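does this look right to u?? uridine 5'-triphosphate version
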Amino acid sequence: MSMTLEQAKAKLEQYGQQHVLKYYEELSETGKRALLDQIDATDMSILDACLHKEELAQKGEITPLAAMQIPEIEANRESFTKTGLEAIRAGRVGAVLLAGGMGTRLGSDDPKGMYNVGITRELYIFECLINNLMDVVKQADAWIHLFVMTSDKNHDATVAFLKEKNYFGYREEYVHFFEQEMAAATDYNGKIYLEEKGKLSTSPNGNGGWFVSLKRCGLLNFVHEAGIEWLNVFAVDNVLQRIADPCFIGATIRKNCVVGSKVVRKSAPDEKVGVMCLEDGKPSIVEYYELTEEMANAKDENGDYAYYFGVILNYLFKVAELERMMENKLQLHIVEKKIPYLNENGELVKPEQPNGYKFENLVLDMIHEMDSCLPFEVVREKEFAPIKNATGVDSVESARELLKKNGVEL
Ligand code: UTP
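got this back:
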């Protein structure tokens, strides 16, 4: 039984959101039902946190966490790789592509993975990622299950595109889609915007919801049945991303860590990336704006910078540990955003400037729920070419340069 109008009113009153029923009487029966269902499904308890945003990000005591650096990796490459390949061949490793984001900075209406980075030929972001994963499939001579997270805003387009492109040569039975949850989007006072008369404005709830969503979509059962013990989670936008990298997997297993995190050496102490650290003795990530100048320049006992390894959104999680922390509430991140909304006259406005908040959980906060983490250094020019913007830093242009340097024909 879904929610009645009376129940919806009671819930809305509790959270001060009665205004979302403004056009209720104008809706068709199906429209009414859909709105009540959406009100039922929306977590409104988080929204008033935007009124005291500053209090959300209280960090504990930060101390350094040493990374496994390239010389050590190279000295052990063969044996780590062997361990990683064994895990892959035994079916114990799966990959999770986080592709539910809106990619607003890139400015295309299509899912980010559909972006064509080719110049003389077509080469889509999804295709780059699948090509990279195929390298490992060939090396291991074993297929790897790939879970693709989408959101309500891009699910159909993503599924249709990959199907039409024949998964760029990946085997269809090894590709599994699941949708993440959405969260309401509000004005600066925490009041939910309407994007249609019968629809609350929503935004994907951040990439930190991926494991809960995987379970909700029934795929965690599949993970168990397939015997997958490790999930390599990665972002859609890094076209040089090495996925299910056997050496990284092997190093994490051999170091007895429950999570591995690929990291790159900062280019300067003040580079704007989140770096690996310990927070109250547990692995964590300290954002660049949380890092004091003193910490940014601090050295460890070997004379190396103590906070120098930036995360690139490529993590290897142990599934059993993810299940253990699943009930823990992750920190909420409240981010300013341009939110399309109905104005006083019921007309749709697409603002040019941010006009409210989206509410997100982030995958990096999952690290702090883990007892041990291996930061694993990779060579930036070989593995990190993020596409966030159309031009400039971390853009299509910079990624193309890096792809070329790595021998990818454009
Ligand atoms: P970003 O932080 O770059 O966010 O996502 P975004 O929404 O894609 O882009 P902007 O900020 O609007 O320009 C990092 C990774 O996390 C995924 C993205 O698809 C990307 O792979 N992500 C982000 C999700 O899967 N879901 C989300 O809700 C947010």
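The chain has a mean pLDDT of 96. idk if thats expected tbh
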